[in-house]
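Appendix C. Worked example: Thiamine-monophosphate kinase
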Amino acid sequence: MPPPSELNIIDRIRRLAGPTTSRTLRLGIGDDCAILTPPPGHEILVTTDFSLENRHFRRDWHTPQSAGHRTLARGLSDLAAMGATPLAAFLSIALPVDYDPKWLDGYLKGLLALAKAHKVPLAGGDTAQAPGPHILADIVLLGHAPRGRSLRRSTARPGDKIYVTGPLGGSAAQLANLDFSSGPQTFPQPRLNLGQTLLRRKLATACIDLSDGLSTDLTHLCKASGVGAAIHSELIPIHPTATLTQALHGGEDYELLFTSAQKIPQSLATQIGEITDRKILLDNKTLKPQGWQHFTNN
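Step 2, the predicted output written as structure tokens:
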């Protein structure tokens, strides 16, 4: 039996997504465009992320539910880093001509379960036939935040303390062990609520999500802010299954790295160092970015 047509796929997505209208989403799946209205005094934030088979997930490693969850989690983590509240998601997916409809159902259920948990309506997208045997997906996330108050990676200042919101290296450890049971590699949890707390309580001076690894993302933040950093290995919270190297360079932790002029309660985050006006240092030695970089890592 041939796989369902494009129209059948869209109908399936619409049924699984359920009603999508809300106070901020006036029109969702089914028309040429979605219609959104952010709350008064708020501005819209937009992010997009690819999820490419054999690059971001593998069908022989990740369940369909995990692949769908990970697709959405990547974009939600970007919104979390800026303190935004999700407004809507848009999924575009290209499938091989001989794709398995049961795999697609599982993928959508995984994505939509995470969307439901964070009250993110799926407002539209696109479907197409992939030019080869691999699945290609792109997620677009829209969020909103009070005008002019979004957290940024370019506003850290010397003297600020550096914090992370949870243990690092767990995702890399799972991947290294080819362990794809439930955990940070298979079902990462974006820190949306914490990002919104940092924004609402004015706790962070700068923020970035840890998707590419602590060493790389700290470098991104420092370069954007024109500052240096000194972090200390004994302060880094390391996942019980991970090594320090995995915590520093592994990536896909989706915790938040932020700076603050305040003393942050340990119930919210762990201090790992401080912002300086010099080099980026780990234990007084130069820390080179060795996390994920496309076109460099294989």
